[in-house]
Amino acid sequence: MQVYEAPIKDMLFNLNELHEDDGFGNLEGFEDFDEDVTAAILEEANKFCRDVLLPINWPGDQEGCRIENGVVRTPKGFQDAYKQFCEAGWSSLGVSQEWGGQGAPHSIAKMVEEMTCSANLSFGLYPGLTGGAMVALEAYGSDELKSFYMPRMASGEWSGTMCLTEPHCGTDLGMLRTKAVPQDDGSFLVTGNKIFISAGDHDLADNIVHLVLAKLPDAPPGVKGISLFLVPKYLPNEDGTLGNHNNAKPTAIEHKMGLKASATCQMTFEDSKGWLVGKPHRGLEAMFAMMNTERVAVGIQGLGVGEIAYQSAVYYAKDRLQGRSLSGVKNPDGPADPIIVHPDVRRMLMTMRAYNEGSRAVSAWVSRALDAEHASPEPEARARAKDFVALMTPVVKALFTDLGHESAHLAVQVYGGHGYIQETGVEQFARDARIAQIYEGTNGIQALDLVGRKLPDRMGRNLRSFFHPVSQYIEDNAGDEKIGKMIAGLQQAFGALQMSTGHIAQKGLKDPEEAAAAATDYLRLLGFVAMGYCFAKSAQIAYRRLEEGADDKPFYEAKIITARYFFDRLLPPVMAQMMAITSGKASMMDMPEDAF
Description:
By secondary structure, this protein is an alpha+beta fold. Helix content is about 55%, strand content about 10%. A hairpin with a 2-residue loop joins β1 and β2.
């Protein structure tokens, strides 16, 4: 059974308590979003996700999308849900007021995004892609394009996509063949084929705004010759009404493992009219603004699936009667005890819970930095926030999706045989979560980005934005008796991270393959140290609140227990990854290719 209620208490804890001393200082422009308003937003978002999106999640997976007369049709209930989503203002929550949005901080918008991904990940992709497209358009589009398209995209009237991949090339975008031919009126005619285009076509919004990578006739070879173009599905008139179809057509829907209610399309553009976004041959620069936004969003998808998988597993573990507790009968009036009494079931549930709470805490930290990049009045804080976001973006994308997928599989395991059949709904989580480890750059690509670009950038400046607060926290709290064991564990893990960083820096300069061979292990180690830092702080705050006589005693007690579990069970194995990192590339790369 798919069960979901947004973890609002934990969300508010992260927003209002955990990161108030994150070093980014006070932010300007968010004065209207105080604690009461934030709580109200999260409560209303929970109601919408629970009551509107969750009921169509499993049926939508069963029905899937289809093409009728050249138009993609979404499953039953999706059109009405999208209409309600837009009318309630959820499409514009985090959008600047300049474009008709509400101007909420990322830290709040990401919490709502998590709810949407938990309740119905397929649905969430439609407005999610629009948000990413708006980031690129706002940063690089002309004033004319922005003033015309941004308000309509903010309202949800029009949606957006990103069109990168082609049948013959994946990550290597230098090989793309889509072409854009200049026209006398300043527009371009775009022709080419794209694949794996999420929300490439659908029946939810009136128009779809495609951001398409293509090459101009005078483009230099490789990635330096790529430009970005805005290509609408329908050519709009000056007053915003829709004119002729623009030959941007879905030719097929991919038959996917999961996310069946999300239309992943093969697209064809045939002399489709478009407009340049940004400078000629600088399209990747603009596209990466969108992709980095989407990478954080994909990480939130992993967290969202992990949360609903956990809640559904808890529901079943409390309801399913099987066996007797090893410490004595717990349900004397029944034929057996609920399986939640068994240690191995507890292991799975606590692992999922810790993954979710740890990911949410790190997500809130990164979201706070996203806000500080633009809203901090202090230049130094803005620069530090930018460095931190650059460092943590690949970690959020890769680690959260790995853990979300693992949680989904643990939920199936808790259900046993009932988890393997479709009727209970939990196997959908495992299928839906799997793609998040692949798109927007596979998790291996994220790890390469971390060690190949983010670590050496400006002599390690990005890393200092993370190392300094963690190091200072360990030093300041080494004598705290209540969390002393956690501080010791964090210090040990942080030491392993420092040694691994030095190893990669030393070996990677001489041999890039050494750094690449260590990348995935290093990303996981860094991510778990970030979680450990957040868990130690969370436990410290919880102890303090309990001493002050906090009203919500069970919440803070549970926060401490979850932190203890993380340090006892989850952090120690990750520290061993330093051994894998320092072992070098030899056993990985020495096998001759023809021996595989």
